[in-house]
Design brief:
The protein is an alpha+beta fold. The chain is built from eleven helices and 43 strands. The two termini are about 45 Å apart. It comes from Candidatus Methanomethylicus mesodigestus.
Length: about 750
């Protein structure tokens, strides 16, 4: 019967949080109030944001009133509803969000006060969240805003194609690779988004003219120019047009994005600076010739070459002219784009020279003469500058002196701009060949023959190189491998209670444990409590022989139990198995309940919390038990009904589980005060060590597991240091109060840091 009562009590306590949660979720939604209006706004509701950005959502209640309001949100219409309670100030409320993962996030405000506004519901807004461009991606022409053409990507690439995508028109433009997608434009006017792993078409968008401009990807937007005079901004995920800007001339130039501004050149002789989100013009600068080259940016300065034979340095924020230096006029077809590295600007010219200018002053530092026009854009890597020439060669020169290091003849014009990765230089030729050369020596690693001339320049990312050809094909060499860091999880996806609830739960747990611990002592004190007198009267009524027989019987049973336990030191007893199960189940359910805002979310996160409960509730406790049993102290893990009840109460009352459902009971004269203190210190330090381990898991993407384990261990460590029996903190307090004070201060500090820093 006692076992059945115990099991019944455990079952009831286990389901109390579930019953409470079901009541919350199943409650009917409030009706719409007719005399109040809620408006929800966000600047980025029409534009994608990345997981490393933060946005602010603003709610407006009219007529204005101060009070509590609830913001609900979900991702991808998944049914998992999250919520946050805030307070309006004169009808205004704002909340800043970061996002844990890509998807479409929906938000809505609801007034849930006990007044006539109850049930007022806002409009719903949706925010598209995407992964940020990884540093290994090739997100624009020449890789980066300085146009270095150098990627940190691995280069274990052979001339075996992984896939080939065929477009309806020739591909002159260079591809961009970002977030697992390859973007490229073609003759015929279409922009294509292709899966980087498989080569499958994801979407296409038709502009009004051929596309010679290479796409640039930033914050979920693809920017690309077309020969119909427009610069287009497209949703990177869907291809939907966000805006288009008319430059007044065909756009052969490739865009660059810097500090929220997109820069582009046009054959109307101008350089434009536009708002990257809206397409609104900030400024434009007029040169003396067509601007077919692509801008490079370094330290707030924009460098651009024009067909008037000059290279310009402009203030990137204002468009003010900083300096102008001559190259060579008369480029009637295309123009080399500048690259900036180490305070030097490198650019090719129609006179066949590769020029180097001081980036600050525009002073010409050196030039190197080739045997033909330089329409290729230089790449800069490892102290060397690489560039192609119309004389059918690719050369490498010293970046500081311009001295030639090596020269390779390939037999056809090199319009393609070289790309460098992993010690290899990749480029294409007008004869249709793709080359891979050793960057140090110029030795050929491999070649590949396409079906027509290659004007396109290589893009390299995550072990894959892509390049287009006039044969209308986009070629992918090597295998694309995702290498993004794990997405950052915001506080909303970790379990961290409100500070007020954390303080209240700790205080209630401490007071309740103290009361329950001290109550028996009040009835059994040395001066004769009521309970002592009752026991004495009962003993007086029992015959002496019967009392001796009962004492002998109980002692023999106790000896039998202990003797049996001695035979199997490290095997758990049946009661311990029950205790471990209760500990794991209750820790998992209470901590998952504290985080979950719906039954669906509770069901989804329970497996993670069960895994954490096994680590915290089994491994940590068994280590201490095994240690004590090896020292000759019989320690048994048992269900602690008061701790179980306290765990459930603090969970429901404060959404802050603050207790332990089980405890250790020790039987031995060898369990001295010193050993008790050693066990107490070890018990708490093991818990904190596990907390550190769980904290280390979070930056590597195991956010929910790490968050749950960290919470369990930090709370458990603080609870155990309370100097109240039967907690281990009491043993340490009795043995050495200074050591206890130091350990208690440490756990309190870690507890506060966990609340404030997570």
């Amino acid at each position: 019967m006692p076992n059945k009562l115990l099991l019944g009590a455990i079952t009831l306590l286990t389901f109390l949080p579930l019953i409470h949660l079901i009541g919350l979720v199943a409650a009917p939604p409030p009706s719409q109030a007719q005399n109040a209006t809620l408006q929800l706004q966000c600047l980025y509701s029409n534009y994608p944001v990345t997981t490393d950005e933060r946005i602010t959502i603003i709610g407006n209640l009219s007529p204005a009133r101060s009070g509590t309001i609830t913001l609900y949100w979900s991702i991808n219409n998944s049914g998992f509803i999250y919520r946050w309670n805030g307070t309006t100030t004169n009808g205004i409320i704002s909340r800043t969000f970061g996002f844990c993962c890509p998807g479409v996030w929906g938000f809505r405000l609801v007034w849930e006060g006990d007044d006539e506004y109850n049930g007022a519901t806002s409009n719903q807004i949706f925010i598209t969240v995407i992964s940020p461009v990884a540093s290994d991606d090739w997100a624009k022409f020449r890789h980066d805003i300085a146009n270095t053409g150098h990627s940190p990507s691995s280069a274990q690439i052979t001339n075996q194609t992984n896939w080939v995508y065929t477009s309806p028109g020739a591909i002159r433009a260079s591809p961009a690779i970002a977030n697992g997608v390859v973007y490229v434009g073609s003759f015929g006017g279409s922009v294509y988004a292709v899966n980087a792993t498989t080569g499958a078409l994801l979407w296409s968008y038709l502009t009004g003219g051929h596309i010679w401009s290479s796409p640039a990807v930033s914050n979920g937007i693809v920017y690309v120019g077309a020969n119909d005079n427009y610069l287009y901004a497209l949703n990177a995920a869907t291809g939907e047009k966000l805006w288009a800007f008319d430059t007044g001339g065909a756009v052969f130039s490739s865009p660059a994005i810097y500090e929220g501004t997109v820069y582009i050149g046009s054959i109307d002789n101008r350089v434009y600076a536009l708002n990257a989100a809206t397409g609104t013009q900030f400024w434009n600068y007029t040169t003396g010739g067509q601007v077919r080259a692509s801008p490079a940016i370094a330290e707030g300065v924009l460098y651009i070459a024009s067909e008037d034979g000059y290279i310009y340095a402009l203030n990137a924020f204002t468009g003010a002219n900083l300096w102008v230096s001559p190259t060579y006029p008369g480029d009637s077809y295309t123009c080399s784009s500048p690259a900036v590295s180490g305070g030097i600007v490198y650019v090719g010219a129609w006179d066949g020279k590769l020029y180097a200018f001081n980036a600050s002053t525009g002073e010409r530092l050196w030039y190197h003469t080739t045997g033909g026009i330089i329409e290729s854009s230089p790449a800069v890597a490892n102290g060397m500058v690489f560039v192609g020439s119309d004389d059918g060669s690719l050369l490498a020169v010293d970046a500081v002196t311009g001295r030639m290091i090596w020269f390779v003849s390939v037999g056809s014009q090199v319009y393609s701009s070289p790309a460098v990765a992993g010690g290899i230089v990749y480029f294409g030729t007008w004869g249709g060949d793709v080359y891979a050369l050793n960057a140090t020596t110029g030795a050929t690693k491999w070649t590949y023959r396409t079906g027509n001339g290659v004007f396109s320049s290589p893009a390299i990312a995550n072990g894959m190189m892509c390049i287009g050809s006039y044969d209308s094909k986009l070629y992918a060499f090597g295998t694309y491998t995702e290498s993004y860091p794990p997405p950052y999880e915001e506080r909303e996806d970790e379990w961290v209670p409100a500070t007020e609830s954390a303080v209240q739960a700790a205080a209630v747990a401490g007071v309740a444990t103290a009361v329950v611990s001290l109550a028996p002592a009040a009835f059994t004190n040395p001066i004769g409590g009521i309970w002592d007198r009752i026991l004495e009267r009962i003993k007086d009524l029992i015959p002496t022989n019967l009392k001796k027989w009962l004492e002998y019987f109980l002692l023999s049973k106790r000896k039998m139990r202990l003797q049996a336990k001695i035979g199997s030191k490290f095997m758990p007893t049946p009661s311990e198995v029950l205790a471990y199960i209760v500990s794991i189940v209750m820790l998992a359910i209470t901590f998952a309940y504290a985080k979950a805002s719906s039954v669906e979310e509770l069901a989804s996160i329970l497996p993670i919390y069960f895994a954490t409960g096994i680590i915290v509730g089994l491994v940590k406790r068994y280590f201490t038990i095994a240690f004590l049993r090896s020292r000759g102290v019989w320690t048994e893990h048992k269900v602690w009904l008061f701790g179980l009840a306290l765990l459930v109460f603090t969970t429901i009352a404060f959404r802050m589980p603050f207790a332990t459902p089980t405890r250790n009971v020790n039987y031995s004269e060898k369990y001295t005060g010193r050993l008790k203190a050693t066990v107490a210190i070890s018990w708490v330090l093991i818990g904190l060590a596990f907390a550190g381990l769980f904290a280390l898991l979070m930056p590597f993407g195991f956010v929910q597991l790490g968050s749950a384990g960290l919470a369990m261990c930090v709370i458990g460590a603080l609870f155990d240091t309370f100097p109240i029996p039967p907690l281990v903190g009491k043993s340490l307090f009795d043995h050495n109060k200074i050591l206890w004070a130091m350990l208690f201060a440490l756990t309190v500090a870690i507890y506060i840091a966990w609340l404030m820093l997570m």
